[in-house]
Write a structure and sequence with these properties.
It is a single chain. It is built from 3 helices and 3 strands, in the order βααββα. By secondary structure, it is of the alpha+beta class. It has a single domain, classed as Molybdopterin biosynthesis moea protein, domain 2. A 3-stranded antiparallel sheet has the order 1-3-2. It comes from Bacillus weihaiensis. Pfam families: HTH_17 (PF12728). InterPro entries: HTH_17, SinI_DNA-bd.
Length: 76
Amino acid sequence: MYLTVAETAEYLSIPEEQVRALILEKKIRALFDGEQYLVNKDQFTTHFEQLEKYKEWINDYLKEPIPEDPDVKDED
């Protein structure tokens, strides 16, 4: 499914100018049909899956308890 620049900006929650800049920098693949750029929506699927995976890793890391240090000695 192809999206226009405006639809891509809404989908990614970023300004249209930033989408155009990313297209011109070739960070987002797009087709120019003579009038406008068209962006394939499927290219973002992997990106969003990776973001979710990284969020899970970070949450798991933050939930892990701090291990007790064996070198800590009781002063008493």
